[in-house]
Amino acid sequence: MNILITGGAGFIGSNAADRFIKEGHQVIVVDNLITGKLKNLNPKAKFYKIDIRNREGLEGIFKENKIDIINHHAAQMDVRKSVDDPIYDADVNILGSLNLLQLAVKYKIKKFIFASTGGAVYGEQDYFPADEKHPQNPLSPYGISKLASEKYLYFYKRTYNLEFTILRYANVYGPRQDPHGEAGVVAIFAKKILKGEPPIINGDGGQTRDYTFVEDVVEANIMAIKSDINGTYNIGTGIETSVNELCNLMLKISETDIKPIHGPAKMGEQRRSVISYNKINSEYNWTPKYPLKDGLSKTIRFFENE
Q1: N or C: which end of the chain has fewer CB within 10 A?
Q2: Nearest CA among 35, 78, 32 for reference residue 53
Q3: Three-class secondary structure of residue 115 per DSSP
Q4: What is the tens place of the pLDDT at every residue in 137-158?
Q5: What pTM does this model have?
Q6: pLDDT-derived band at 270, boundaries 50, 70, 90
């Protein structure tokens, strides 16, 4: 199949592109390279440097290529930046997504796979782990824009019969991760540790996240290509790990005697976040394969060799 990956030079998108190509698919990558990197691009992918807000430029790609599936990863994904500039966040995440949806309908795309967010969509949780039916009360413009895009997908399905799969990611980490956004803590810590510098923990470090290895996330994207996988699915581990625990594990893996230091807490930071993957496990047998220690070891090795 011909798969268009937006954000395909970024962290998760480039890992997905590699796997799609390995599986024998033709991959077209769209990325504006604001956070994506040319070095992440698979040489077998067809690349267009275009912003998803550029409707005319995007349409040229649809005219040149017979696209079967859109795998939409391009986003303004920095939670704190979304708070500082909610208009920019909405411009990229909502209007950019609408450009793709309009073209998906016009060019009769078979399926739209959307990378959403588990933690930011649910907000402060009422119960742990959160399943897909958990109330959605996002605390940031980033979470709001992702949720809005999800709602648009339901509209396009009902109105134009556009098939879709929404994957609500937990905090994804792994090779090629950039130290941007809340989820970038693993990359930030890894780079500090490898430089021999103490990692800086925001606040008391008791805040928890569901850290999910990128290869497990890519596996979910591979599954989502299948025509019968439609709807919304959490992609996480169901395991809460505090920032203190994460940091100590990374220091142990790195065999260093560096000690972390604590900085001020970040305003508006979610205290606890962990999501349930029971739905996709029961329906399609997806399960995370990488324990945190193994994923962190692979990630630290990547940054050592970079």
Answers
A1: C
A2: 32
A3: strand
A4: 999 999 999 999 999 999 999 9
A5: 0.97
A6: confident
Is residue 17 in a domain?
A: yes
Query: Does 139 reside within a domain?
Result: yes
Measured CA distances, 179 to 13, 33, 103, 233 (Å)? 16, 15, 32, 26
Residues 7 and 152 in one domain: yes
Number of domains into which the chain is organized: 2
Res 182 pLDDT > 60: no
Handedness of CA 286, 218, 28, 77 (dihedral sign): positive
Let me know whether 140 and 263 are in one domain.
no
Query: Do residues 127 and 192 both lie within one domain?
Result: no
Q: Which residue in 142, 169, 211, 290 is the catalytic one?
A: 142
pLDDT category at 186 given cuts 50, 70, 90 is: very high
Cβ 28 vs Cβ 11: under 8 Å: no
pLDDT of 80 reads: 84
Judged against a pLDDT cut of 90, whether residue 52 lies above it is answered with yes
Specify whether 121 is located in the same domain as 13: yes
* Structural domain boundaries enclosing 112: 2-171+212-235
Based on the residue annotation, tell me whether 290 is a catalytic residue of this protein: no
**Do the domain assignments include residue 183?**
yes
Residue 198 and residue 61 share a domain = no
Q: What's the CA gap between 173 and 196, in Å, rounded?
A: 21
Cβ atoms of residues 104 and 70 within 8 Å: yes
Neighbour tally for 118: CB within 10 Å: 30
CATH code, 296: 3.90.25.10
Residue 73 belongs to a domain? yes
Both 106 and 147 in a single domain?
Answer: yes
The strand order across the sheet containing 69-72 reads 46-48, 26-30, 2-6, 69-72, 111-117, 164-169, 231-235
> Could you read off the pLDDT of 201-238 as tens digits, one per residue?
999 999 999 999 999 999 999 999 988 999 999 999 99
Report DSSP letters for 33-66, one per residue. -SS--GGGS-TTSEEE---TT-HHHHHHHHHHS-
